[in-house]
Amino acid sequence: MKILFVCLGNICRSPTAEGVLRSLCSNSEIDWEIDSAGTSGHHIGERADERMRSHARKRGYSLESLSRKFDPHKDFEGFDKIIVMDEPNLRDIKNLDLKKKYSSKIELMTKYCTKFEASKVPDPYYGGAKGFEVVLDIVEDACRGIIKVHT
Ligand code: 4NP
Questions:
Q1: What is the model's pTM?
Q2: Cβ(120)–Cβ(84) below 8 Å
Q3: Ligand 1 centroid vs 148 CA: distance in angstroms?
Q4: Which residue, judged by its Cα, is nearest atom 6 of ligand 1?
Q5: What is the number of domains present in the chain?
Q6: Which of 30, 112, 132, 145 is the most buried (most CB within 10 A)?
Q7: What is the mean pLDDT of the chain?
Q8: Residue 31: CATH number of its domain
Q9: Where are the beta strands (DSSP E) in the chain?
Q10: What pLDDT is stored for residue 110 in this prediction?
């Protein structure tokens, strides 16, 4: 299984999803390829947001990825699942799929939640500490769901 997580900046939500799923997979000896990307290129080359990394670290996750932009020429073919954090991400990625060839690969993260009834992973960037905890809560729930559904 090759999974790409996508959010806007690739410095908060999708790097968290990448780090959490990597950690859960490694604990369960699941050998998946996991990556993340952003729909905007505003933070290319940056590490995950310091606030996000700090909240993730407290739950035992180390976020190591560097931000990159989603590449329609490689990523649609290169991954089995492209899992996005909210509706704007979904719209942006679908718009890049010009021939509507990859629709079945593109999914909302929250469809995998079993504990929380969320319709998106809310963008924590302009909010306070609580927002980063909410990201971790929803992402942990969804990542467990991904493993349940695809193993
Ligand atoms: P992310 O959060 O999409 O979860 O990485 C954001 C990061 C940066 C910005 C917005 C959201 N920004 O406006 O710079």
A1: 0.98
A2: no
A3: 29
A4: 9
A5: 1
A6: 132
A7: 98
A8: 3.40.50.2300
A9: 2-7, 33-38, 81-84, 106-108
A10: 98
Q: Per-residue pLDDT tens for 52-79?
A: 999 999 999 999 999 999 999 999 999 9
The boundaries of the domain holding residue 19 are 2-150
pLDDT, position 79: 98
CA of 134 to the centre of ligand 1 (A): 15
Pairing status of strand 33-38 against strand 81-84 = unpaired
Give dist(CA 96, CA 110) in Å, integer.
Answer: 21
Write down the pLDDT at residue 76: 98
38 CA → ligand 1 middle, Å: 9
Q: Annotated catalytic, 144? A: no
10 in ligand 1 pocket by Cβ < 6 Å? yes
Q: Decide if 123 is catalytic.
A: yes
Nearest to 121 by CA among 143, 148, 139, 141: 139
